[in-house]
Amino acid sequence: MLKFFKKIGSKLKKFYSENPMILAFVGISVINGFLLRVFTVKFAYNQVKPLMADIAATLLMAAFAFCFKTLKGRFRYLMTVNVINTILVAGNSIYYSNYKSFLSFSLLSTGSQLPGVMDAVIKNIMEPKDLLFLWSIPALAVTYHFCKKKTRTYENQNKQKQKRSRNFGFTAACGLVLLGIFAATLSGTDYSRLRKQWNREYVLGTFGMYTYQTSDAISSAYSKINMMFGYEEKKEAFTEFYDEKDELTEEVAPEKKNDYTGIFEGKNVIVIHCESMQQFCMDTYINGEELTPNLNKLAREGLYFSNFYAQESVGTSSDSEFTFATSLMPASSGTVAINYWDRDYTTIQKMLKEKGYYIYSMHGNNGSYWNRLNLHSSLGYDKFYNYSEDFIIDETIGLGLSDKSFFRQAVPKVKAINEENKNWYGAFLMLTNHTPFTDIERVSDLDVTFRYKRFNSDTGLYEDVSAPFLQGTKLGSYFKSVHYADEALGQFLTDLDSEGLLDNTVFVLYGDHDAKIKPAEYERYLNYDPFTDTVLTEEDAGYIPVDDFYYNINRKTPFIIWSKGGEYEPKEITQVMGMYDVQPTLGNMLGFENKYALGHDIFSFTEDAENAVIFPNGNFITDTVYYDCQKGTYFDLTDYKNVMISVSCNQVYKDTPNPIFNENTHGLFKFDEDEIYCANSCEARVNDGIVDDDYIQSYAGYADEIIDISNAIIFYDMINKTEQGFENSVDAQRDADSKAELFMPPMPGRRRTQIVA
């Protein structure tokens, strides 16, 4: 046996000494794949498995180089593949920075949206590390240069061909053997996740970059083919899904009506799509002043949902518009705005139109961005007022017309619409508060330094000191942009009120998604010491890391329903809620119902029932835990208060702004470990036994179902194609006046369905 392995080793050594370019290509590709994992998923997964997979995949790629007769031809082939691989690893690194996921070939159709946000990509998303992958191109070129100097003599063309054939077979065989060994290490869960491609972080972390990308290409092609042939299978699942509604609904929401049923019927509706607004901003103070005083006023006077998540995917703003309107999830393959806008969806806009409402939208960007001219028509809008077609572009900030100018010009349009229509629904899409936020610096006067007083022994006086804090940082620019957006909203409300346009109107505001601020920015925010103008590092006792749980839990956005009419008592609703819950919640208030809604009227839950917010990647959050299906871990939310509003210097001193420096107190700021938010405390909340495995499996299975059924509706135009059959199989089973939601989350402790990995 030892002789056998020595013989194999000798052949391998000889082969690669004769073909160093093949070895260089494999080595370069494997190193880049490893670097990608280091920069993204880090070491959260087994490192041997993806390494084997990457070597096997690149050996198979390299084998085809021997189809070319000359060294030059083989170099051209390997360089072409190398450039493609480099683009993929760099692209995945950049993409992960923004979406915590990886590229898919199904997203090629969204490439048309990239030019509009290229400035944001370069300034806010790309990092120097993303350029590191480019080393592979000159490395392979240098290898080729040295290979050219070697002399190669072949007796004749037949022997050349035979040798190339042997080399092809040997390289491919090595790749296949290694691939077989790798395959033997995989579990059923691994194969299931590879096939579904929802859990992309897990797939890349386990299978390596090249296997993931190959599988994704096959999956993307298969989904297109399957859309032509898989309708009957999905229709059966669709019908079964909704037929299960009655038993589950009665357990969680037995009451058909609640205190909010019909309270806004007959009122006009203003919806504010608040660009990149995160909820923690509403609890943020800068030198003792509220960052968002107008949003906070609306929250105090309205129904404020402080535990709300947007559920968007790669379609970002357009995904939120879609989910808000339809109570469906974003598409798992491609985006609705680009790929599936022409389906027949049941939307808020269409249901209000049936009640006699005039439906319109306004935006300070081009109508072609995210295909909104088509998307808005499909959702049921009568008119889309946009950019230069309907507005005077007198002030631009960032991507288009400034919010203040946009709202100022919108008021007379709303007044004209109000005069011509008994009832109307208007959606206003804000724009200025869009990444990269840097353009706001030229118009904002918000001070994001930290001010305090310090005694000067030379003068005997206390002097004002201004520590830089957030000045010149991306988070600082974001706070300035948020403050500007809040000012614009405040002026818009004042102008509408002065025209009497709020008297018979319900005002609805939602944040469309988080700001895509990187964890490193938050770590600086949490660990900054203004009294020494320093930032703690990992070696310091008081350092607070921003792990995936701290980061993702902070991604919640505001959702507020407000009216002047006094139809409700102001209230903060802390129960977890998602964008897909908006349509049924508003429907209960405005008097319409969508039997295909995947979300729920948030006021229909009994006190002991939990809602669940499902994210497009399969993660979910309840009032008890946040579950990361990528890593199979959960975070205990019991008594957890968002770290972003708890430990930064501006928050600690929000009630005592401009403090007088005292060496004994302020001199020790950030000196000791914060027992509540340190790394150990965070880790102690992970998989701590607050819930059992049945709880996780039940909700994970529910998440799987929700995503699958939503995709079926989107991909196959299921509502339009099965409406008659649905009426016969589902509506006949219930009272026509029932306001019950169709599908509720599983009861705590009840295992509704077996988890599907």
TrEMBL record:
GO CC, any one term: plasma membrane
Binding-site residues, substrate: H434
Keyword Cell membrane: yes
Keyword Repeat part of the UniProt annotation: no
Enzyme class: hydrolase
Annotated compartments: Cell membrane
GO terms of molecular function: hydrolase activity; metal ion binding
Ranges where the Sulfatase N-terminal domain occurs: 267-590
EC number(s) stated in the UniProt entry for this protein: 3.1.6.-
Protein family according to the UniProt entry: Belongs to the LTA synthase family.
Active site: S317
Main subcellular localisation: membrane
Binding site for Mn(2+): E275, D512, H513
CDD domains per record: LTA_synthase (cd16015)
Protein name: Arylsulfatase
Signal peptide location: none
Alphabetic keyword roster: Cell membrane, Hydrolase, Manganese, Membrane, Metal-binding, Transmembrane, Transmembrane helix
